[in-house]
C-alpha cells in the first residue's frame, strides 16, 4: 500500500491526478449518491428534477474537483451544487412555462448554506424509503421504486432481477412518480400514530425483494442473489435509522436466512432441505450478527412476526444437527406467532415443528386439519410437507399422492427435481 | 389541496342493517361532518340516492341516450362523497379513514385536478 502511494507520487502527471479524482468521485457516487439524492428530492420537491440535479452535480465534480481540489465536505458540496443546477433547470423552464417562476423564487430563497448534517441526511433517507413504499403506490411499483431510488439500481438491472423487460419497470417507476406528484404524497417520515402500519408496508417491500432473491431458481441465481444483498442493505439502513423491534427483527431474519445460502443448493444446483444441509457451510458471521439482532428485538418486548420468525431461524442456526434442534421451543414460538398472525402458512410451519417435537403423526393430524379447511389447497409446501410425514409413517400411497400434487404446483426447477427424486425414492 | 372522498358500500347490506345500527351510523356521520366543519376541511358533502335511481347519459353522433343504470354489477356502489381540503395525501387518507363507512365499505380518495 505504502509503496504504491510513493510510486504514484513519483510518476505524478496531470493525467494520474485526474484519474485519482475520478476514482474518488466514483467512490463517493457509490457510497453517497443515494443520500445526496434523498436530500435533493426534499429541497427541489420533485424526483425527476432531483435526479437530473444529482447527475449534474456529479458531472460538475468531475470537471471542477481536478483543478479546485476535493471539497472538505463532498456531500454538502454535491447537495448545494445540485440545488443550484435544479434552479438553473427551472429558470430555463420558466421561460417556456408560466407556472414555474413561483418554484424558482421559492428555491432561490432557500439558498442558505447547506450543512453536511448527518441527522438531516439520515432523515432524508428515511423520507425516501417511506415515500417509495407508500401504500398508495402499486405494490410492484413500490418494489421498483425502492430498488431504483433507494438502492440506485438501473431499470435494466431491476428488470433482469425480476425477469421482466426494462420498459415494464420504467413504466412502473414513471407511474409511481406521477402519483407522488399528482396526489401529493408528502416526502416525510410518518407520524408516530401512522408509523406501525407504514413501517409494515416498508418491511413488506424489503422482505419481498429479499425473497425474490432468495427463493430464485439456479438459472438466474447471480443477478437474483444481488436482490437479497440489496434487501439486507436497505434493511440494515432502516434498522439503524429507525431501530423499531420489527425493523431489527426483519434484518435478523434476512441475515439468518442468508447465512444458509451456501448450503441450500448442492454443487450440481439441486435443492438441499434444512435437515440435510451441511451446517459447516453456514456463514458464521451472518449468524452471529443475526442472533445479536434477534436478542435486541426480543428484549424490546414488542417483538412482532418478523422478530419471532427470526428467533426461530436463530434456534435452527444454533443447533449442531437437525435432530438436536430445540423443537419444543420452536413449536412454542409458533404458538405465539399463530396468535398474532393467524395465517394458514404459519399454522403449516407450526405443524411441521410439532411433527419434529411429537412425531410425524401429530404433525399429519394438524396438516390434514389445515388442508380440510381448504386454505392451502394450492400451496405446494403444504402437500410436500404432508407427503414427507406420510413417507416417514410408511403410508407410501398417501405420500405418493401428496408428492404428485406438490409437483403439479411447483414452479421452480430445483424444487421440481427435488420432488421427483422423492417420488422415485418411495418404495413401490 | 382538495381531495374527493368517494364512499362505496353495499346498499343491500346497508338496507339490511337493524334500525339501531343505522341510527348509530347516522350519529357517527353527524359527528364526523361536524368535526370536518370545525377543522375547516369540509368543502362539500352529500349522500346519494340509491343506485336504482341512477341514469347513465351518453352523447354519440350528436344523439343523446339516457339509460337506466349503471347496473350494480359490483358489490359496492357509490353512496356519497366528501370534498375536503387536506394538506397532502397522508392527511387526506387520515380524514378518509374516519368516514364511518370506511368500516363497512371502502373510500376512494382522488386528488382534484386544480385548474390554474
Report the biggest beta sheet of chain B as strand number plus sense, adding barrel if it closes: 4 strands, antiparallel
How does the helix and strand content of chain B classify structurally?
alpha+beta
Rounded to an integer, what's the Rg of chain B over CA atoms? 16 Å
Shape of chain A: elongated
Helix count from the secondary structure assignment of chain B:
3
Give the strand content of chain B: 35-45%
How many β strands of chain B by DSSP? 6
Shape of chain B: flat
Cα(first) to Cα(last) distance of chain B is 13 Å
- Structural Rg of chain A: 26 Å
Greatest interface: A-B, 11 and 10 residues
Look at the structure and give the mean pLDDT of chain B: 92
State the helix count of chain A. 21
What low-confidence regions of chain B span 5 or more consecutive residues with pLDDT below 50?
none
Helix content of chain B: 25-40%
Structural class of chain A: mainly alpha
Number of strands of chain A: 0
Contiguous runs where pLDDT drops below 50 for at least 5 residues of chain A: 1-12, 217-222
Walk me through the structure.
- The complex is a heterodimer of chains A (428) and B (116).
- Helix content of chain A is 74%, strand content 0%.
- Chain A has 428 residues and is mainly α.
- The model of chain A is unreliable at 1-12 and 217-222 (pLDDT under 50).
- Chain B is of the alpha+beta class.
- Chain B is 31% helix and 35% strand.
- Chain B is built from 3 helices and 6 strands.
- In chain B, strands 2-5-1-6 form a 4-stranded antiparallel β-sheet.
- The radius of gyration of chain B is 16 Å and the shape is flat.
- Classes of the chains: A mainly alpha (428), B alpha+beta (116).
- Chain A binds chain B through residues 99, 134, 136, 182-186, 188, 190, 194, and chain B through 1, 87-91, 93-94, 111, 116.
Amino acid at each position: 500500500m505504502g509503496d504504491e502511494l510513493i510510486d504514484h507520487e513519483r510518476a505524478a502527471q496531470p493525467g494520474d491526478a485526474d484519474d485519482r479524482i475520478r476514482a474518488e468521485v466514483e467512490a463517493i457516487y457509490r457510497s453517497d449518491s443515494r443520500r445526496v439524492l434523498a436530500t435533493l428530492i426534499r429541497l427541489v420537491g420533485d424526483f425527476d428534477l432531483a435526479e437530473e440535479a444529482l447527475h449534474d452535480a456529479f458531472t460538475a465534480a468531475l470537471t471542477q474537483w481536478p483543478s479546485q481540489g476535493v471539497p472538505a465536505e463532498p456531500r454538502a458540496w454535491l447537495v448545494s451544487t445540485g440545488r443550484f443546477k435544479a434552479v438553473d433547470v427551472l429558470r430555463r423552464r420558466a421561460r417556456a412555462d408560466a407556472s414555474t417562476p413561483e418554484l424558482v423564487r421559492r428555491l432561490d430563497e432557500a439558498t442558505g448554506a447547506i450543512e453536511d448534517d448527518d441527522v438531516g441526511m439520515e432523515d432524508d433517507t428515511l423520507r425516501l424509503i417511506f415515500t417509495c413504499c407508500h401504500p398508495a403506490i402499486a405494490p410492484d411499483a413500490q418494489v421498483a421504486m425502492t430498488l431504483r431510488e433507494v438502492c440506485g439500481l438501473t431499470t435494466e438491472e431491476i428488470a433482469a432481477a425480476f425477469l421482466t423487460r426494462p420498459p415494464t419497470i420504467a413504466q412502473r417507476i414513471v407511474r409511481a412518480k406521477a402519483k407522488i406528484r399528482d396526489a401529493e404524497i408528502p416526502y416525510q417520515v410518518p407520524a408516530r400514530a401512522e408509523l406501525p402500519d407504514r413501517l409494515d408496508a416498508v418491511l413488506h417491500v424489503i422482505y419481498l425483494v429479499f425473497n425474490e432473491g432468495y427463493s430464485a431458481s439456479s438459472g438466474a441465481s447471480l443477478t437474483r442473489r444481488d436482490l437479497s444483498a440489496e434487501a439486507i442493505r436497505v434493511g440494515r439502513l432502516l434498522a439503524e435509522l429507525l431501530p423499531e423491534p420489527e425493523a431489527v427483527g426483519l434484518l435478523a431474519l434476512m441475515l439468518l436466512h442468508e447465512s444458509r445460502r451456501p448450503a441450500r443448493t448442492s454443487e450440481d444446483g439441486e435443492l438441499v432441505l434444512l435437515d440435510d444441509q451441511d451446517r459447516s457451510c453456514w456463514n458464521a458471521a451472518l449468524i452471529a450478527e443475526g442472533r445479536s439482532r434477534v436478542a435486541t428485538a426480543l428484549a424490546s418486548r414488542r417483538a412482532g412476526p418478523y422478530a419471532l420468525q427470526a428467533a426461530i431461524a436463530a434456534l435452527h442456526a444454533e443447533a449442531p444437527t437437525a435432530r438436536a434442534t430445540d423443537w419444543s421451543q420452536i413449536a412454542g414460538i409458533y404458538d405465539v406467532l399463530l396468535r398474532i398472525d393467524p395465517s394458514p402458512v404459519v399454522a403449516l410451519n407450526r405443524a411441521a415443528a410439532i411433527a419434529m417435537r411429537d412425531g410425524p403423526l401429530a404433525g399429519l393430524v394438524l396438516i390434514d386439519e389445515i388442508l380440510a379447511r381448504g386454505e392451502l389447497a394450492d400451496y405446494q409446501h403444504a402437500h410436500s410437507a404432508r407427503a414427507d410425514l406420510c413417507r416417514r409413517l410408511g403410508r407410501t400411497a398417501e405420500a405418493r399422492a401428496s408428492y404428485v400434487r406438490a409437483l403439479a404446483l411447483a414452479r421452480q426447477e430445483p424444487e421440481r427435481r427435488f420432488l421427483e427424486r422423492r417420488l422415485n425414492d418411495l418404495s413401490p | 389541496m382538495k381531495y374527493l372522498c368517494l364512499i362505496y358500500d353495499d346498499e343491500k347490506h346497508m338496507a339490511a342493517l337493524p334500525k339501531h345500527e343505522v341510527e348509530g351510523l347516522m350519529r357517527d356521520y353527524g359527528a364526523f361532518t361536524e368535526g370536518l366543519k370545525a377543522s375547516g376541511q369540509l368543502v362539500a358533502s352529500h349522500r346519494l340516492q340509491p343506485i336504482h335511481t341512477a341514469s347513465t347519459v351518453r352523447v354519440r353522433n350528436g344523439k343523446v341516450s339516457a339509460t337506466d343504470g349503471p347496473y350494480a354489477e359490483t358489490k359496492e356502489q357509490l353512496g356519497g362523497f366528501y370534498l375536503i381540503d387536506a394538506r397532502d395525501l397522508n392527511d387526506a387518507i387520515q380524514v378518509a379513514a374516519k368516514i364511518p363507512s370506511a368500516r363497512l365499505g371502502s373510500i376512494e380518495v382522488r386528488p382534484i385536478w386544480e385548474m390554474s
